[in-house]
Fold:
Amino acid sequence: MRQNLITEIRDFLAETGLSAYRFGYLAVRNGRLVERLESGKRIWPETEAEVRAFIRSERRRRATEQQKAS
Structure:
C-alpha cells in the first residue's frame, strides 16, 4: 500500500509541479512526509487517507480552474 501511495504522490507532483516538501506541508502539515515515506517509514492509515483526500480535492480544484479559464 505504501508503495502505491508514493507512486500516486510522485504522479501528482509531476502533474502539479509542487515540490515534495510543499506537498507534504499542504497535505498534512509535514514537509518531510515524502522523504520519510521514500526512506521506508510507516504512515498511519488516517494520514494516508488525508493525503489521498488532498490529492483528490486538489485535482478537482485545478480542473475547475482550468474549465473557468477556458
Summary: The mean pLDDT is 95. The chain has one domain: 2-69. The chain has four helices and no strands.
